[in-house]
Amino acid sequence: MPTSMPIEYTDELNNAFYEKLARPIEQRTATNVGRKRGEALARGLEGDPWESSAVGAAETAGTNALSDLWSNIGMQGAGMAREERLGGVQRDWQAGQADIGRQFQSAENEKLRGFQATMAELDRANQRRMKRSEGSGWGDVLGMGLGMAAGGFGAGAAKSIFAED
């Protein structure tokens, strides 16, 4: 029986699991060997090559079953190790994607804050310009000119057209 396997369980656990599952196989092998020896004795073929080959075949079948058992334990352990490794790779990928998403969102938020700051500054500049324009009297002159061009009634009509609600 191999003593070490590259799987997730310790050798002690693997050996305990193997021993538990191997016991019925070993008992069945011993029963089959005894049956073959009994058949040889009943036929008067004790010590004959027929007895040797029958007993050898029973022992070989038992040995093969035990080898298959150990191989299956190893394959199951390797499968579990593979699933764990792939799960780790998937967790790492998901964490990376989450980081990328956070970085993207942070960059988008920064762009939005910059845009909002620019728009607020433009609004303040526009309001300052409007206050200077109203304070200089040009608003009345322009309003009167527009009112006359539109066939209005003079400065009073222009003021009513451009008056803020």
Shape: rod-shaped
Beta-strand share of residues: under 5%
CA-based gyration radius: 47 Å
Mean pLDDT value: 79
Distance between the termini: 96 Å
Q: How many extended strands?
A: 0
Distinct helical segment count? 4
**Main beta sheet, described?**
none
Offer a concise description of the structure.
With 165 residues, the chain is mainly α.
Walk me through the structure:
The protein is an all-alpha fold. The protein has a domain at 11-106. Helices cover 84% and strands 0% of the residues. It has four helices and no strands. The protein has helices at 11-42, 49-135, 138-149, 155-162. The chain is rod-shaped and about 135 Å long. It starts with 10 loop residues before the first helix and ends with a helix.
Features:
single chain; 165 residues; mainly alpha; 4 helices; disordered N terminus
Write the layout of secondary structure elements.
Elements: H1 11-42, H2 49-135, H3 138-149, H4 155-162
